Amino acid sequence: MATAHNDVYLVRHGESAWSITGQHTGRSDLALTSRGENEARALGPRLKGLKFDHVLSSPLRRALRTCELAGFIGPATLDRDLLEWDYGHYEGRTLLEIHRERPEWELFRDGCPGGESVLQITERVDRVVSRLRALEGNVLIFSSGHVLRVLATRWIDGSAALGRRLALDPASVCVLGYGHDRTDSVIRLWNER
Questions:
Q1: What is the pTM of this model?
Q2: Band of the pLDDT at 4, cuts 50, 70, 90?
Q3: What is the per-residue pLDDT across 166-189, written as a single tens digit (0 to 9) for each?
Q4: So which residues are the catalytic ones?
Q5: Which residues pair with 142 in a beta bridge?
Q6: How far apart are the C-alpha atoms of 184 and 177, rounded to whole Å?
Q7: Rounded Cα distance, 40 and 58, in Å
Q8: What is the CATH number of domain 8-192?
Q9: Complete DSSP assignment for 23-81
Q10: N or C: which end of the chain has fewer CB within 10 A?
């Protein structure tokens, strides 16, 4: 992976038990599976040789462990705004289970009862984007799938709803950056494994 100055690298945590079963894992502090730990270790060589001026991580165990096994825990700063979407009443439930009750429900449009609305996660992620734009140098972020998808859409000035169109696998790497004249924010790389 080539790097340019002022790029933002997004890393989704490695596999957890609920990422296998498709259960919504927001604030539940799950550990990585053994496969997830291996995926996290494999990130180290993939990111080797890149210079990161800032490393940020969600405080949840699955993101922190991914950060640690990839070799970046030392310089990491915890950022609560990088926590996964708060799924409220849908925490631990699969999409199939939710659709039995609400067939038309869509996370990126409807948010979660008892959890975060689309407006609330958008405001939270916008704080992260604002801080990222003020930083100089490359940034590495470890977090979870849905919040990173919203982060990418807000980076390019899109709505959170656009996040439903971005697949993001465990232990994947994405790169956000700027166009040639630094006036446009772009997605340089998405869901690279």
A1: 0.96
A2: low
A3: 999 999 999 999 988 777 999 999
A4: 13, 84
A5: 11, 57
A6: 9
A7: 15
A8: 3.40.50.1240
A9: B--SS--PPBPHHHHHHHHHHHHHHTT---SEEEE-SSHHHHHHHHHHT-TTTEEE-GG
A10: C
